[in-house]
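Issue 218. Parser rejects a valid record. Input:
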Amino acid sequence: MLRRVFIAATIVVAAAVTGCNGGSTNPPAFPTGTLVTPSPTPIPVHLYVANDSASGAVVQYSLPITGASTQNFSIATEASLVTVAVDATGNMAVGNINANLQFFNAPLSAASAPAATFANGGGSNTGQITFSAAGDMFVGTTGNSVKVFTHPFSNASTPSLSITNAAFVSTIGTALDAAANLYVSNPGTGTALTCSSGAGSCSDLLVFAPPYTGAPIVTPNVASTAYRKIAVSATQLIASQVAGATGRVDVYSADHCGERAGLRHYERRKHARGRGARRGRQLVCREPFQRDRYDLRSAVLSG
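Output the parser choked on:
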């Protein structure tokens, strides 16, 4: 919505001097003024929080969040949500533990109802939903694939692409960067030989370049770690971790580490900086970093 802009024009009217034929020898000057170019009204930025209880629902909050913040409204959804995402135009998608997906058209309100409801491509659960710049959905399955759904969505929507890889154990987190590279968090990995905490208790990350059919970059396993949702910016990837009694957030930094692009994993260490290590297609550089800890929820920022 554009704000109305009133253009002030100063009209200069010369004093009328009667000519010989009764006309004016000095006609009125043309109106003059300053043209003000309107600026678009900023799109409101909101936080959307999904409810993983039996009642379901997504609540919207305005930013910035303060101790006095209250929800703007609640949108009714299916029960037991585990992911929520908002695309660039304000449309919203949610997924639950039964591998059901719902899509809501913008503008969102308490009266919003799903425009489409469909299954997550035969999966038994739902990982993280991520929208591409074009409005297509990339969805983890907590299995051995990531499903891609092409818009427009309907109750009959089925995957247009299934991204698979032999390294997949449980695809949960998904994220896309500005170049459309796909990042996937993959918990449940590891063996007694490759992860110090034993089989099934480690996590890694996979990075696929479009069109997602080639071999990915795979980061080394991180012990005693169960990655869930992830987010990516131009310089960092942030992964939530839920293993153990206390949750954790791990931060990876984009890095070239020689001739091949990869991810630099920042993790807590006592003293000296570790060296960059390359193992086949695996690439990581380790440096000390104090991991922050948060209570983790399914939430997404939009704007």
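Fixed in the parser; the record now loads. The CA atoms of residues 143 and 166 lie 11 Å apart.
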